[in-house]
Each structure stands twice: as structure tokens, then as C-alpha cells.
Here is the input.
Amino acid sequence: GENVEQHPSTLSVQEGDSAVIKCTYSDSASNYFPWYKQELGKRPQLIIDIRSNVGEKKDQRIAVTLNKTAKHFSLHITETQPEDSAVYFCAASPLRGNDMRFGAGTRLTVKP
Amino acid sequence: DVKVTQSSRYLVKRTGEKVFLECVQDMDHENMFWYRQDPGLGLRLIYFSYDVKMKEKGDIPEGYSVSREKKERFSLILESASTNQTSMYLCASSHPGELFFGEGSRLTVL
Here is the structure.
């Protein structure tokens, strides 16, 4: 089955700096790559996703890049704010999405 | 709004007890999932289901079973709870595509 690895496990940045989280996957059949944000005590929620026919996707301060050849994808957050502090999870699955595997998570702390 | 409801937010059980965790979704989603969340280990897939009465093992199915008798309901069963099953359990559903999670069920096994 799919194996997703995520780095770093913790990340601390100053407010206004950029943050980058990287993930690799093992199964070449995976073609859907979502990112979830989990705030303390809350459920994970989708923040952005990318499909394998796209190399990059951007939504305001958040962007995701995908390199299918190298089997890695990354989350980029620019102009970080304290409310970006949370645990972020990457995931990978076939497009039908019924076999979703997650990375171990990255705890992002944005210092004011 | 998609709603995924887990019946119990907090449970405390004794070793050897049978435990049922219930999950109901109201969006007619085909796929349903059970994950276990532990610090440093992320979300690990226990079982998933892509149709009524269908189930597939995830990465850590040992000690668990599931039931999906109706499309909207997916139950996780611990036949004989053990202390190493103390964890947060998250249910999710999808169309497919985006996963919608429940609030989670924190299970403590003493």
C-alpha cells in the first residue's frame, strides 16, 4: 500500500516568514494529494489539494507543488500569521479517494 | 454542510470489553473511513469502506473489525479492548475526494 513520509515534524517561524512542509509518497498510482490543517482540539479540515495533472496550485497565501517523477509534493505558506499555527497533514490516494494515507504531521508554530 | 457525527466523544473502557464506535454521515457519501490518531504517528488507516457491506483493511486492522450495513453508518468494533488501543479515533467520509472528518472519539482502555 501507499506510504507517505512528511518532514519536518515540527516547524517554528516568525510571523511574516514563509513555511515549507515536504512529503514523499511511494505508490505511483496515487494521483490525488490533499493537505489538511488540524487546530488544537478540532477535526482535520482540507485547506488545499492537487491532482496529478497539475504541477502547482495556489490559493491566496497557500500553494502546493507536485513532482510526480520524484514522487514528492510540498505545501508553501507565505506571510505566516499566528492563526496558521496548527498541525498540518499531507495525504495521497488514487483519485477515487477510497484509500487515503496520511503523513505523520507537522506541527507549525508561528511566533508573533 | 456535510456532517459526520461520531456517537461518543469520550469513552473509558476496561481491558477485555467489547467496544462499539459509531459514525453517521448525512451526505450520501460512498466512502467511509476509520483512522486512529496518535502523537507523532499521524492518522493511521484502520479500515475503509467504499460501499454498503464492503470493507477493506487499512494499515493497522489487527484487533479491530467494522460493519457497514447502511450507507450512512460505519461502525468500528474492538472485540476485546486492550490498553494499546487507547487513542483518538476519527471517522471520515468522502464522495470520493475531500475527506470530511467527525469530531473524534477519545477512547481510554484501563
Observations:
- Chain B has no helices and eleven strands.
- The radius of gyration of chain B is 13 Å.
